[in-house]
Amino acid sequence: MSILASLRASASALTAQRTRMNAISNNVANMETTRTPEGGPYRRQQVVFTPRPGGSPFLQMVRANLGLGAPGAGASAGVQVAEVVEDQSQPRLVYQPDHPDANADGYVAYPNIDLVTEMVDMMSATRSYEANLTVLNSAKNMAIKALDILKA
Question: What is the pTM of this model?
């Protein structure tokens, strides 16, 4: 993998993890949201990642001609966000007969969001972001060193 490919892969991971952190932030911010424009309580968001297809069409053709794999084969060129999906689990029902969103039995539907799960997801996204930032900085330093060698 070239230095530029490493930079692209790390950059795609940084973007994906930022999207994941935004979804987690929305989940925590809306833990008590009982009414949305769509009706009903807020639904937890989850980010789905998929690998990005590897390299440019030209590089794929070169790889195929050199016997390094068929076009489109080989390592991915990072990660991308496939979609942000809403959790379809049932809302948490809390007995609050005085609440404006209470049903006929006095229960209010709250989002089924667990703060501990969100915090664990946030720590995981943060660590992934930091790791990819380290890779990005290492690749940048290697490129700088290579340019310094060429100057000499």
Answer: 0.78
